[in-house]
Write a structure and sequence with these properties.
The structure holds two protein chains of two kinds. Chain A has helices spanning 14-36, 39-62, 66-70, 74-85, 92-108, 120-131, 133-136, 152-161, 176-185, 190-194, 207-223, 230-249, 257-262, 266-273, 284-304, 311-328, and strands at residues 139-140, 172-173. By secondary structure, chain A is mostly helical. By secondary structure, chain B is an all-alpha fold. A two-stranded antiparallel sheet of chain B has the order 1-2. The chains are: A mainly alpha, B mainly alpha. Chains A and B meet through helix 5 and helix 6 of A and helix 9 and helix 10 of B.
C-alpha cells in the first residue's frame, strides 16, 4: 500500500513547501488586520513562539537533532493555522494550551512529523473548544461593529493582562454561525437575523472578505502544485451540496450555501487544513471521498451540533477514516487487473 | 512474615506484571467512565475488588461441582448476586455515591476482569490463592483508577478528593484539597477524551518503567 505524503513537484523540500504555505496565508492575514485590527498578529506571534518552544523541548527529550527538524517549518505552519482558527484577543494561556495539544499531543506523541493520524492544528482547536467554550466563542468584532478596535499594544495588553475594566463586549461578538443557530432556534425570521450588523453581504462582516483572501491564497497553492485540486474542490462541493439541499428544503431554518462557504473555518479548512499531506487521503479518488465527506459533515455538525463550527470535528473524523479510504481507492497498477494478483493481467 | 514464592508471584502479577488496567487493558468501560475524580474512582475500584475477591473465593470453593459445560452462566450468576448485594449496601448507606456511580455499579457484573479472573484462575486453583489473586488484581485495577482519577481531577478541576462528602458523609466536606487555586479548569480532562489520553500516558509510563527495569 502507498503511504503519504507524496512529493508533488521537484525542488520542494519540506521547508520550501512549508514556507510557501505560510506565504499563501499572507493575503488572509492582511485582510484580517484590515477588518479586525492587529489582534491576529499577536496570536500568530504567540502561537509561533509557543510552537517552536514545545517543538524544541520535545525534540531534545526524544534525542533528535534540533536543527533539521526545527527549521523544517512544520511547527510554524501548525501554529499559524491554529492561530488563524482561534479567536483573537483571547488570554495567552488559551494559545499555550492549544499549541500544547497540537504540537505535543497530536504530533509528537504519535511519532512526530509524518506519523500523526490527526491534523495537529485541528486537535488543538478541538481540545480548546471542548475545554473553554466561553473563550472560544468570544471573537473580535469587525470594524464597524466593535465599539473599540484595540491597537497592537492594547491587543498585547488584552492577551497578557486580561480585559481588566473594559468589558469584553466592547470588542468581541459571537460568530455569525453561532448567532444564526441560536436565533433560528429561538424562532426568529431568517431575513431579520441576516440584517444584524455582524452579518455582511454573504457571511460574517469582514470574515467573508478574509475567507475570500484565503481562497486567493489557496488557489495560488493549487496553481503552484503544492496541493492538488481534489481536496479543496471536494470539500467546498461537499459543503455547497449539503447546505444547498438543506437550504432548498427549508430556507427559514438553514442558511444559504454561500453563507456556509464564507463563514467559520470553511475556506481555511478547504485549502490549508484538509489538504495537510500527512493526515489527508493520498489517492485521487480517496481525496475526493475524504474531502467531500468532510464538507458534508461540516454542515451537518454546524446545523445539528452544539458547537459553533464543524470544520475541525469534520476533518478529525475523516482523518480517522483515511487509512480505510486509502486502502479501498488504490489505483489499478498498469498491467494488473483491478483487485487481481500479480501476473494475472 | 514471609510469603511463599507463589504468593509473591500472585501479588506481583496482579499489581504490576499483569495489571488489569494498563497491561491486560480489561474492564475499560468503568475505568474510562468513572475515573473523572479520585473519590468515584476509589469507590468503584474498591467495590469491584470486593466483588472480585468474594466471587473468586466462592467459585474456587465449588469449582469441582460446577459442570464444565455450563460454568460461565454459573459464574455470571454468582457475580451478579454479589454485585446486587454491594449495590443494595451502597444504596442503603452511601446513597449519594450510589447515585453518582449510577449504572456503573450494576455493570460490575459484566466487567470482563471479574469474569476473566474467575474463569482463568479461580476455576482451577485453591480457594486461598484465588481470593489472593482476585484481591491483587482488584487492587491493581483500583490503583490505575485512582491514579487516572487523580490526574484527571487535578488537570480538569485543580482539586483532589472533590465529592468526598458523598462517600463519607457531610463531615468530610472540608477535606477537598484545592491543588491549584483560582484554576480555570481544563474541561477536556474531565470529559471522555481526557480518560483516553490519561490512560494512554499511564500505559506509556508503565512500558517505560518496565523497559528501564529490564535494562
Amino acid at each position: 500500500m502507498n503511504g503519504s505524503p507524496y512529493i508533488l513537484s521537484q525542488n520542494n523540500s519540506v521547508t520550501v513547501v512549508m514556507l510557501k504555505v505560510l506565504a499563501a496565508l499572507i493575503p488572509g492575514v492582511i485582510a484580517h488586520v484590515w477588518f479586525f485590527g492587529p489582534g491576529i498578529l499577536v496570536s500568530l506571534l504567540l502561537c509561533s513562539a509557543f510552537a517552536i518552544g514545545f517543538e524544541a523541548f520535545i525534540l531534545l527529550m526524544r534525542g533528535i537533532p534540533l536543527k533539521p527538524f526545527l527549521s523544517d517549518g512544520s511547527a510554524l505552519v501548525t501554529a499559524c493555522l491554529l492561530a488563524l482558527a482561534l479567536p483573537t484577543l483571547a488570554p495567552w494561556w488559551l494559545y499555550l494550551t492549544g499549541i500544547f495539544f497540537a504540537v505535543v499531543v497530536a504530533k509528537h506523541l504519535y511519532g512526530g512529523l509524518g506519523q500523526n493520524p490527526f491534523n495537529p492544528a485541528m486537535v488543538g482547536y478541538a481540545a480548546l473548544i471542548v475545554s473553554f467554550p466561553v473563550y472560544m466563542t468570544q471573537w473580535a468584532a469587525p470594524v464597524g461593529v466593535a465599539h473599540t478596535i484595540p491597537n497592537l499594544w492594547e491587543a498585547f495588553d488584552l492577551v497578557f493582562a486580561g480585559a481588566g475594566s473594559i468589558s469584553p463586549d466592547a470588542y468581541t461578538s459571537a460568530t455569525v454561525l453561532d448567532t444564526w443557530k441560536t436565533q433560528v432556534r429561538l424562532g426568529k425570521d431568517a431575513a431579520d437575523i441576516l440584517g444584524q450588523p455582524i452579518f455582511g453581504w454573504a457571511g460574517g462582516r469582514g470574515q467573508e472578505s478574509v475567507a475570500m483572501m484565503y481562497l486567493v491564497g489557496g488557489l495560488l497553492l493549487v496553481s503552484n502544485r503544492l496541493t492538488t485540486w481534489h481536496i479543496p474542490f471536494a470539500f467546498l462541493a461537499g459543503i455547497t451540496a449539503t447546505a444547498g439541499a438543506l437550504h432548498l428544503f427549508d430556507p427559514a431554518q438553514h442558511a444559504s450555501p454561500l453563507f456556509h462557504l464564507l463563514s467559520g473555518g470553511a475556506m481555511l479548512g478547504a485549502f490549508f487544513i484538509a489538504t495537510d499531506p500527512v493526515t489527508a487521503a493520498s489517492t485521487p479518488r480517496g481525496k475526493l471521498i475524504y474531502a467531500g465527506l468532510a464538507g458534508f459533515l461540516t454542515v451537518i455538525i454546524r446545523t445539528f451540533g452544539g458547537y459553533p463550527d464543524g470544520v475541525a470535528f469534520a476533518i478529525l473524523l475523516m482523518n480517522v477514516a483515511v487509512p480505510f479510504i486509502d486502502a479501498y481507492t488504490q489505483p489499478r497498477v498498469f498491467g494488473h487487473k483491478r483487485g487481481g494478483k500479480r501476473g494475472q493481467a | 512474615m514471609t510469603f511463599s514464592q507463589e504468593t509473591r508471584d500472585i501479588l506481583y502479577n496482579g499489581l504490576w506484571k499483569q495489571n488489569p488496567g494498563i497491561v491486560q487493558i480489561l474492564g475499560l468501560c468503568p475505568l474510562l467512565a468513572i475515573s473523572s475524580n479520585v473519590v468515584n474512582a476509589l469507590s468503584l475500584g474498591l467495590a469491584t475488588t470486593l466483588v472480585m475477591a468474594v466471587a473468586s473465593g466462592s467459585v474456587a470453593l465449588i469449582r469441582n461441582v460446577i459442570p464444565h459445560e455450563i460454568r460461565i452462566p454459573a459464574f455470571v450468576l454468582i457475580i451478579a448476586a454479589l454485585v446486587t448485594v454491594v449495590e443494595l449496601v451502597m444504596h442503603a448507606w452511601m446513597h449519594a455515591l450510589y447515585i453518582v456511580l449510577g449504572v456503573f455499579l450494576p455493570l460490575i457484573t459484566t466487567n470482563c476482569i471479574v469474569l476473566a479472573r474467575v474463569e482463568a484462575f479461580a476455576s482451577k486453583r485453591s480457594t486461598t490463592h484465588s481470593v489472593l489473586d482476585a484481591t491483587a488484581m482488584g487492587l491493581g485495577l483500583t490503583g490505575v483508577l485512582v491514579t487516572l482519577g487523580a490526574m484527571r481531577e487535578i488537570v480538569g478541576k485543580g482539586t483532589l478528593f472533590s465529592g468526598i462528602d458523598l462517600a463519607l458523609g457531610p463531615m468530610a466536606k472540608g477535606w477537598v484539597i484545592p491543588v491549584i487555586p483560582d484554576y480555570h479548569g481544563l474541561l477536556i480532562a474531565i470529559l471522555p477524551p481526557g480518560a483516553f489520553i490519561g490512560l494512554g500516558l499511564l500505559i506509556a509510563l508503565r512500558n517505560m518503567l518496565q523497559e528501564r527495569g529490564v535494562r
